[in-house]
């Protein structure tokens, strides 16, 4: 009897002991599982894919892209974003191909750097958020009627538009004896057409003769520029991507003929101009990047985001070109760093 009771006691103890081990084992497993889930969530958290269409390589557009990327990295961390930066080689069709590829790859957001890039992205998708930068006037670029500062839909961005009336004033200030002004621009760039039309009207108000000199691409730039330099006292070039990529051609024609060039932005001015009222394209890109972060985080609705503008414009001059033409820089202008 005592033996039987002893056996039962031992059996009961073993059962209780197994229960304790099972409980301990369960607690350990639960803890491990919870930790693993946490680690997995952390490791596979959202990594944003951003496609960048840059129309071509030149100082202004490069700076805008760099500023954009830095702003996104500063806000999200380098490890949480993947950039696919593509160069359109100055060809709208190439930009369209890139945009369609981004749509196929299901990127989270597209940065369209320059007007043709924006137009291509807009044609490719109405769903993926698109931010433009280095775009002068969105109403013109996207053929919007009664544009009031908000594009709507899946598009917003920043504008590189500097005060065109003040740029027109610069021409009369720097070249007070000038009677004729040639406005040199690429006819394929809608925003260039917009700028020269505004500047032309301002110059005519001031009593100057302003003549448009459009060229279709870099192949006929030299011929058109030569004609403008032969017939005008001064030349104005807007923020034009084809001009920005070919400032050497303009400089080689205008400097020997002693014809000064007033430029729409600093990069062009440093290549062929004497003076400009310019914005910082890096800062413009950085502002665009901050907009992108708000969209990606769900903190802003792109359809209601107003187009952003540069907060400041800086009057600058090209010392080398001023010296070559015997022009004394005006007070209040800062020399462009070589």
Layout of helices and strands:
Elements: H1 2-43, E1 48-54, H2 59-76, E2 81-87, H3 92-104, E3 109-113, H4 115-124, E4 130-135, H5 138-141, E5 155-159, H6 164-174, E6 180-186, H7 190-205, E7 209-215, H8 218-231, E8 234-237, H9 241-245, H10 247-254, E9 261-263, H11 266-272, E10 275-278, H12 281-296, E11 308-309, E12 314-317, H13 319-325, E13 334-335
Helix pairs in contact: 2-12, 3-4, 6-7, 8-10, 10-11
Describe this structure in words.
The strands form 2 sheets. This protein has a 7-stranded mixed sheet with strand order 7-6-8-9-10-12-13, sandwiched between helices. Strands 2-1-3-4-5-11 form a 6-stranded parallel sheet, with helices on both faces. α6 crosses α7. The chain has helices at 2-43, 59-76, 92-104, 115-124, 138-141, 164-174, 190-205, 218-231, 241-245, 247-254, 266-272, 281-296, 319-325, and strands spanning 48-54, 81-87, 109-113, 130-135, 155-159, 180-186, 209-215, 234-237, 261-263, 275-278, 308-309, 314-317, 334-335. The protein folds into 2 domains: 48-160 and 280-306, Rossmann fold, CATH 3.40.50.2300; 164-278 and 314-335, Response regulator (Rossmann fold, 3-Layer(aba) Sandwich), CATH 3.40.50.2300. The model is unreliable at 1-44 (pLDDT under 50). It is an alpha/beta fold. α13 (319-325) links the parallel β12 and β13. It starts with a helix and ends with a strand.
The CATH topology of the largest domain corresponds to Rossmann fold
SS element count, helices = 13
- Percent strand equals 15-25%
Shape: elongated
Q: How does the major sheet shape up?
A: 7 strands, mixed
Tell how many strands the DSSP assignment holds.
Answer: 13
CATH evolutionary superfamily of the largest domain = Response regulator
**Highest-level CATH class of the largest domain:** Alpha Beta
* Helix coverage percent: 40-55%
Count of individual domains: 2
Which regions are unreliable across 5 or more consecutive residues at pLDDT < 50?
A: 1-44
Assigned CATH architecture of the largest domain: 3-Layer(aba) Sandwich
Ends apart, CA distance between termini: 107 Å
**Strand/helix succession:** HEHEHEHEHEHEHEHEHHEHEHEEHE
**Structural class, from helix and strand content?**
alpha/beta
Spatially, the strands of the biggest sheet line up as: 7-6-8-9-10-12-13
Radius of gyration: 30 Å
Overall pLDDT confidence: 88
């Amino acid at each position: 009897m005592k033996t039987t009771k002893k056996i039962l006691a031992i059996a009961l103890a073993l059962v209780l002991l197994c229960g304790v081990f099972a409980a301990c084992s369960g607690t350990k497993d639960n803890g491990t599982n919870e930790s693993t889930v946490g680690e997995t969530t952390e490791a596979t958290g959202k990594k944003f894919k951003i496609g960048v269409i840059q129309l071509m390589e030149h100082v202004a557009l490069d700076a805008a892209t760099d500023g954009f990327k830095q702003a996104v990295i500063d806000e999200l961390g380098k490890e949480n974003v993947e950039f696919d930066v593509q160069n359109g080689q100055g060809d709208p069709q190439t930009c369209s191909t890139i945009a369609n590829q981004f749509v196929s790859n299901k990127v989270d957001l597209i940065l369209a750097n320059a007007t043709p890039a924006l137009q291509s992205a807009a044609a490719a998708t109405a769903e993926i958020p698109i931010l433009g930068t280095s775009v002068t006037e969105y109403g013109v670029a996207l053929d919007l009627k009664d544009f009031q500062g908000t594009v709507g839909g899946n598009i917003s961005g920043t504008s590189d538009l500097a005060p065109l009336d003040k740029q027109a004033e610069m021409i009369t200030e720097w070249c007070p004896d000038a009677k004729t002004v040639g406005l040199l621009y690429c006819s394929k760039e809608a925003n260039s057409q917009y700028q020269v039309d505004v500047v032309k009207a301002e110059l005519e108000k001031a009593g100057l003769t302003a003549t448009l000199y459009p060229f279709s691409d870099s192949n006929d730039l030299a011929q058109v520029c030569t004609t403008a330099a032969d017939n005008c006292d001064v030349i104005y070039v807007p923020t034009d991507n084809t001009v920005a990529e070919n400032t050497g051609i303009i400089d080689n024609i205008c400097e020997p003929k002693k014809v000064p060039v007033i430029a729409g932005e600093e990069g062009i001015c440093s290549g062929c101009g004497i003076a400009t009222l310019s914005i910082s394209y890096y800062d413009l890109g950085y502002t665009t990047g901050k907009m992108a972060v708000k969209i990606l985080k769900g903190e802003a609705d792109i359809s209601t985001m107003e187009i952003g503008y540069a907060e400041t414009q800086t009057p600058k001059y090209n010392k080398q070109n001023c010296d070559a033409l015997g022009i004394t820089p005006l007070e209040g202008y800062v020399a462009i760093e070589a």
